Amino acid sequence: MDKPLKILVVTQYFWPENMRINSLVEGFIAKGHEVTVLTGRPNYPEGRVFSEYRENPDRYSNYFGAKILRVPMLPRGRRNTTLAINYLSFFCSASTIGTYKIRNNKFDTVFVYAVSPIMAAIPALIIGRIKKAPVFIWILDLWPESLSAVGVVKNPKILALVGKLVSWIYNRADYLLLQSKSFEENIRKYCTKHISQDRIIHFPSWAEDNFSDEIPAHSDILERDNSTFTIVFAGNLGEAQDFPTILKAVETLRAELPLRWIIVGDGRASNWLHEQVAARGLNNVFLLGRHPLEKMPALFAAADTLLVSLKANEAFEKTIPGKVQAYMASGKPIIAMIEGEAARVIKDAGAGMTCKSGDPSGLANIVRSIAALSPDQHKAMGNAGRRYYLDNFSKEKLFDRLEKIFHFATLRKNNRK
Questions:
Q1: 295 close to 219: Cβ distance less than 8 angstroms
Q2: Are the C-beta atoms of residues 350 and 384 closer than 8 Å to each other?
Q3: What is the pLDDT of residues 215-236, one digit of tens each?
Q4: Residue 250 belongs to a domain with what CATH number?
């Protein structure tokens, strides 16, 4: 049997923020490994440090046995300027204060949870070099393409500079784990030195909750209503999710079908959404705010279908939003205003219906189509998605695979010393 590993996880986001990295850490602790998490102060997605953390930070220094080391950083706020400062402050603080905090620790592997910003990989590369441990970067966003896609950065010169930074990071990592198979073409574009195929690994996301436990009969967020077709969106409320187009579809259908549009989450578009729902008099749209992850299975069970959306963009077409796996695991049909890799997975699974990004008429049409299906057809579609999830995105299978990859990389590194 392989010996337990000492793993350092570097992530700007961690519990009590709802992030997939939380369950990865929990899973590796359950497997008997020693995990340390280097992270910042929780402030996503609201943009301000969580009040419960401010009141008792010591309560958030351990997660299922994983030691949490937090470094100071400025909260992300609600503007692009504060977001940029937030990104910079974490990687600077983690590279200096973080490196000092783990100066006496030994690690077998360093793992980066590389959602935006990609700069979070820099302290991991520094620490990996010091500790002589292989560095894994789990790439969940394409940089600089995603910056341009959401309009955070539009200046071509700045985007080119970010591209050079991305190239610097990728070329110094030991392994690149790709959330989507479609990422590889973009990733190799920034790899100026040859990276062998065994160091670029497809490693998809899983559902944060495996939905295998008994689901409560009732959700305390949303009551089931059999007289109204209920569509639930759960997750980050940002520019990328294209809520202006969703609201156009809502307006198209509100006099035609008895629909409830339930939006659960928070983010940079929250204030805009509240204002627009009120201004347009959309009394069938309910904005329920942010809720804990453990509330999602019961919430999804109260829905008829689950909604995922992304703006039309080449970078987004190569991405599979993490909520797709959660939706599939729940066994509910999916409505997707999305293109590319995510649309392909939903179609291959038979898990729902899709339309082009940015197409309010297309979204309205697939809502009409799925609402017209019988309960048995809804169940068959949801079951098909769940089967596909278990075959391709099972958390247990993915964790076992990553554990083997870590052991192999550690052995390879040790043999080269």
A1: yes
A2: yes
A3: 666 888 998 898 999 999 999 8
A4: 3.40.50.2000
Tokens of 195: 């990276």
User: Is residue 216 a part of any domain in this protein?
Assistant: no
Asked whether residue 219 is assigned to any structural domain, the reply reads: no
Average pLDDT over the chain, rounded to whole? 91
Identify the residue whose tokens are 């209503």.
225
Q: Do 277 and 180 fall within a single domain? A: no
pLDDT of residue 313: 83
The verdict on 181 and 317 lying in the same domain is: no
Cβ burial 82-111 (10 Å sphere, 16+ → b, else e):
ebbbbbebbbbbbbebbbeebeeeebbbbb
Are 110 and 200 in a shared domain?
yes
- Cα→Cα distances 16→19, 52, 167, 205, Å: 8, 9, 32, 19
The answer, yes or no, to whether residue 283 has pLDDT greater than 90, is yes
The boundaries of the domain holding residue 359 are: 229-392
- Domain membership of residue 114 (yes or no) is yes
Question: Looking at the structure, do residues 126 and 18 belong to the same domain, yes or no?
Answer: yes
Q: Give the CA diameter of the chain.
A: 70
Nearest to 352 by CA among 332, 333, 338: 333
Pair 264, 307: CB distance under 8 Å:
no
Q: Which DSSP helix (H) or strand (E) runs through 124? A: helix 121-131
Please tell me whether the overall predicted TM-score, pTM, comes out greater than 0.70 for this model: yes
Is 268 a domain residue?
yes
Residue 199: the pLDDT is 86
Are 144 and 166 in contact by the 8 Å Cβ rule? The answer is yes
User: Same domain, yes or no, for 184 and 306?
Assistant: no
Containing H/E element for 336? strand 334-337
Distances (CA, A) of 174 to 47, 134, 139, 401: 33, 6, 13, 17
Q: Output the DSSP codes for 22-40.
A: HHHHHHHHHTT-EEEEEE-
Q: Give the Å distances, CA to CA, from 165 to 42, 93, 122, 347.
A: 26, 18, 10, 36
Q: What is the DSSP letter of 45?
A: T
In angstroms, rounded to a whole number, what is the distance separating the alpha carbons of residues 269 and 279?
15
User: What is the number of structural domains in the chain?
Assistant: 2
Candidates 86, 78, 96; CA nearest to 38 is 96
3-state secondary structure of 78: coil
Sign of the CA dihedral with 116 first, then 119, 123, and 128 last: positive
